[in-house]
Task: structure prediction
Amino acid sequence: MPSTDSPESFLDDTPPGTTRIGIDEATELGEKALTRIGFDKEDVRIILDQLIDNALCGYPFTSLPRILAIANSPKTKNPRKPVRVIHETPVSAMLDGGNNVGYVTVYKTAEVAIEKAKNSQFSIVGAHDSYFSGRNAYYVEKVVNAGFVTIHVACGQPLVVPLGGARPALGTNPFCIGFPSADGPVIIDSGTAAMQWGEVTLHAHIDKPLPEGVAVDRNGAPTRDAKEALLGGVLPFGGHKGFGLSVAIQTMGLLAGAQLARGDVQDYGFLFITFDPGLLVPADQFADQVAALMNAIKATPRQPGVDEIRIPSERAFRERDRRRREGIVVEQKVIDALKAL
Amino acid sequence: MPSTDSPESFLDDTPPGTTRIGIDEATELGEKALTRIGFDKEDVRIILDQLIDNALCGYPFTSLPRILAIANSPKTKNPRKPVRVIHETPVSAMLDGGNNVGYVTVYKTAEVAIEKAKNSQFSIVGAHDSYFSGRNAYYVEKVVNAGFVTIHVACGQPLVVPLGGARPALGTNPFCIGFPSADGPVIIDSGTAAMQWGEVTLHAHIDKPLPEGVAVDRNGAPTRDAKEALLGGVLPFGGHKGFGLSVAIQTMGLLAGAQLARGDVQDYGFLFITFDPGLLVPADQFADQVAALMNAIKATPRQPGVDEIRIPSERAFRERDRRRREGIVVEQKVIDALKAL
Result:
């Protein structure tokens, strides 16, 4: 059945090697691990709020296991300074992430975006000198819950080949767009690579062939060998349309202060374009119209065998409360590794 | 060779049945035809400026032949009122298109977007009650030439099926994003349908099979029969990522005042989100960085047999001056039909 959810989502059974733990237990486990890596109390709270939310929304791999990735990143071992605003106007701000992990930097960037939009009905806020920001829908939901429409994009290190290219020149460059609605936030959250980079590395690790048409080898030839793809690159999704979108997002990253080159490595940039829908239509009317549009899309006659047309983000939010009660599924070896940090 | 250009572009030879005419001659032909359909002098100038530019940029099918489509649209025969602003703030405006053709309405919408952004470094401007806006890059180039970054989206009547659907619920919902650069505007212009609707109807007309994976029949089953696709719908490009983007653009169309339902037909909405890059980084520095990024992408090692990595819009703008000198290619039967209007 077609699904709008990413393939890694919704692991709700407890296969061998996994265990179900309560939210309190997961929180305590995460707090201890993050504190041992060297994060202060506020950073621990910020990072963990997202990691737990990711699990609740059905994305276990972007939850507690990410603490291990943070711990292993060379950037985490480098010195960091507090996130600070280095340029601002009433409607805009540029934040220097001070080599803080993106979970912290982008959280603070979203807070500035909300604050400025509350004062001016619009804001554009960027951040750089940061890494690993996690699940973009988490930030976008906060901005939407403050009553705003927001477009959040992030650019990163080159992993994606341009059309016709044999080497990466673009990040996986996700976009995340959120709208308030009478039925709760509607959030579209997507990368622009044909396959998530983490999935490619996982395929290489377990020697599993890639699907057709997602990667090229070091010579630019199509490959299904994930190890070869690590030497070549991933394609943009959706041919020239996806390539164009990725180019646009990489360019918007420059507005966030992503350095074009550190050596020859493009750096991360995080951008929020945020506005009050009331600039154009009464906000309540817009919220009603968004809900009605989603219901109209869901009510479309379906293909044979399809039991539901799903709006992006709908299932994640619908099932969050249930997981809050039932707990989340974590691999035992992740738990062990977190305790050993 | 992979190309970032749409398949209908760059018809520069003169196959049987076509003729090459100078820009002056094309302009005169278009002026007379548009005047006979009932457009006043200002509207004729606005419409024709785009139609000629489309031909110059290498898109002959979105040039003079569109006058025939305008003439044949029932909306063109309905009464129209001047485009007017029905709601505004210092940074925003909502325009009622008054049933004017989109070529006129969106031109005026872009003008308001530029004017407001000049005063406030930001603007968000929407328009509705209009139809047929043509080539989005035309408008976006004007906004970019005024020094701004702009995101232009348009939603339209349902032609695209949601994932899992057997009937259309989304428009072909294009996005167009433009950036100033030291080497001239960089513009990404793309629909979110797997195939342009005009191409599907053309395939149906000449009984040519569709490519795999672009359409479903009236039961929602995949089809390569274009006539069946007219009863079912076109798929979004790029699977769930393209579906999500199309949903986002349809939702943004509500901000432009697209009525959710007239009967059960979603209406057109046109939106510009425009800002001064100087809100975040010095505008000159940004223009240099955009140019450097495009050069870095172009300099990527290439796949075997690929002679150039092409940035969206680059070829169109590069070749515009040449066509201005050499003239444009028009089908003789289009010329005859325009003269017969």
About this structure: The domain at 7-193+236-340 of chain A is CATH 3.30.1370.60 (Ribosomal Protein S8; Chain: A, domain 1).
